[in-house]
């Protein structure tokens, strides 16, 4: 934008300078020509009284004196053929003036010829001739044009400098606003724009800062609501724990363990909702241990429902991914929960975890059930009477790390969900 504004000003100034300089240059040339012709004509007219009245000796002396001080060649042609002053041939204009008594200025290829007929002499008509060479007609014009061109270039450079300063005053605040908006898009809600530049840009910066503050307030309110909602789940969990005491010992221990796991998840959700900072988006975890832990949890339920579980982890070492451990666990729980919710008992499923080519990991959950439509990736979409949030939870976990979720069909015709998790990202350097 800065370069375009400068080019626009340069083009406008060039047109203005051309419209001003070209006519002025032509005017300077015309003025120089008129000045040279007028000077030569005045020298010729100064001899007219002497040619008409002076005696030959006085006339000769006066003509030679005037011709010596004239800028252009000055010649007097007497009726008897005598030539005084600067030697010159009798041209057609001189003969015409002597014959017809007409004074005139004649344009020639090598200059301008001024002839003045002097009447009243007893021996006939004398002619005073002044010749202005072409070099004299343009004397000083080249220098004036160079001065004019230099002045135009200086004005153009000055205009470009002013245009660059003005465009910088516009572009720099706009660039800062763009940088702040990108930081806000990356969830850095502490970013604020510095009101600078024209009043309109200062108003935009103020509006952007107000928007960022409002987003912070809305997120704070939303997290408080999530924390309150999660806190309300503790009462039913407490009641469920008390109910397990009336069950047989084996069932009570198993159900109490699951209630404890659910209570830990709720506690973690409350802690995350209350204490996680808006700018803390550069998180990571080790995917192998998180996936193994969640698969082990669901394996117990799989044994109760007659499902065969296969876990295939091909990583030789840790697999760091750019997603929090609780979010990854929630994504795995959502995918495995869908398997239990939408396939009949006895349906086998497998979980695979492998390193991705560019860093991160690829998590695959496949079952031998009836399959899954790609329309169910949308939030709230469900054909099985559920909330429809499971796949969306997994999708958002993948996208938060720079990955994606893909649905497909497994070798046996069942559903195959692939979760691509990006590698951890380094936090930005503070400004």
Automatic annotation (TrEMBL):
GO CC, one annotated term: plasma membrane
Entries under SUPFAM superfamilies matching the protein: ATPase domain of HSP90 chaperone/DNA topoisomerase II/histidine kinase, HAMP domain-like, Homodimeric domain of signal transducing histidine kinase
Gene Ontology molecular functions: phosphorelay sensor kinase activity
UniProt domain Histidine kinase: residue ranges: 228-425
Protein's UniProt keywords contain Transferase: yes
Domain HAMP: 168-220
Taxonomy, superkingdom: Bacteria
Location of this chain's protein in the cell: Cell membrane
EC number: 2.7.13.3
PROSITE patterns documented for this protein: HAMP, HIS_KIN
Broad class of the protein's primary localization: membrane
Keyword line: Kinase, Membrane, Phosphoprotein, Transferase, Transmembrane, Transmembrane helix, Two-component regulatory system
SMART domains given in the database record: HAMP, HATPase_c
InterPro entries reported in the protein's UniProt record: HAMP_dom, HATPase_C_sf, HATPase_dom, His_kinase_dom, HisK_dim/P_dom, HisK_dim/P_sf, Sig_transdc_His_kin-like_C, TCS_sensor_his_kinase
Catalyzed reaction equations: ATP + protein L-histidine = ADP + protein N-phospho-L-histidine
Ranges for region Disordered: 402-431
Transmembrane segments: 145-163
Name of the protein this chain belongs to: histidine kinase
Organism: Streptomyces fructofermentans
């Amino acid at each position: 934008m800065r370069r375009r504004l400068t080019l626009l000003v340069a083009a406008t100034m060039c047109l203005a300078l051309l419209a001003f300089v070209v006519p002025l240059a032509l005017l300077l040339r015309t003025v120089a020509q008129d000045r040279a012709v007028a000077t030569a004509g005045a020298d010729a007219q100064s001899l007219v009284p002497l040619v008409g009245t002076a005696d030959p000796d006085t006339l000769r002396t006066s003509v030679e004196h005037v011709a010596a001080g004239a800028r252009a060649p000055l010649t007097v042609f007497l009726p008897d053929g005598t030539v005084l002053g600067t030697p010159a041939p009798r041209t057609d204009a001189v003969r015409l003036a002597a014959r017809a008594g007409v004074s005139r200025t004649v344009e020639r290829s090598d200059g301008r010829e001024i002839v003045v007929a002097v009447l009243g002499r007893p021996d006939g008509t004398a002619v005073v001739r002044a010749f202005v060479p072409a070099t004299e007609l343009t004397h000083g014009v080249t220098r004036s044009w160079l001065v004019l061109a230099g002045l135009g270039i200086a004005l153009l450079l000055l205009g470009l400098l002013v245009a660059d300063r003005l465009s910088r005053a516009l572009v720099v605040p706009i660039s800062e606003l763009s940088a702040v908006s990108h930081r806000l898009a990356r969830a850095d809600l502490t970013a604020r724009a510095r009101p600078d530049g024209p009043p309109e840009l200062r108003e935009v910066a103020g509006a952007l800062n107000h928007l960022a503050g409002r987003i912070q307030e809305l997120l704070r309110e939303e997290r408080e609501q999530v924390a309150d909602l999660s806190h309300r789940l503790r009462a039913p969990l407490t009641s469920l724990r008390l109910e397990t005491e009336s069950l047989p010992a084996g069932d009570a221990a198993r159900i109490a363990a699951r209630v404890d796991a659910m209570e830990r998840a709720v506690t973690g959700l409350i802690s995350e909702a209350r204490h996680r900072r808006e700018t803390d988006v550069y998180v990571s975890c080790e995917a192998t241990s998180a996936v193994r832990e969640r698969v082990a949890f669901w394996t117990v339920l799989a044994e109760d429902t007659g499902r065969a579980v296969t876990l295939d982890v091909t990583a030789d070492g840790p697999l760091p991914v750019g997603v929090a451990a609780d979010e990854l666990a929630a994504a795995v729980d959502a995918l495995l929960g869908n398997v239990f919710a939408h396939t009949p008992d006895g349906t086998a499923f497998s979980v695979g975890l492998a390193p991705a080519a560019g860093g991160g990991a690829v998590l695959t959950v496949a079952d031998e059930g009836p399959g899954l439509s790609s329309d169910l990736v949308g939030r709230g979409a469900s054909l099985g009477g559920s909330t429809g949030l499971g796949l969306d939870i997994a999708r958002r976990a993948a996208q938060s790390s720079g990955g994606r979720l893909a649905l497909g069909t497994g070798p046996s015709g069942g559903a195959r969900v692939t979760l691509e998790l990006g590698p951890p990202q380094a936090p930005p350097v503070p400004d």
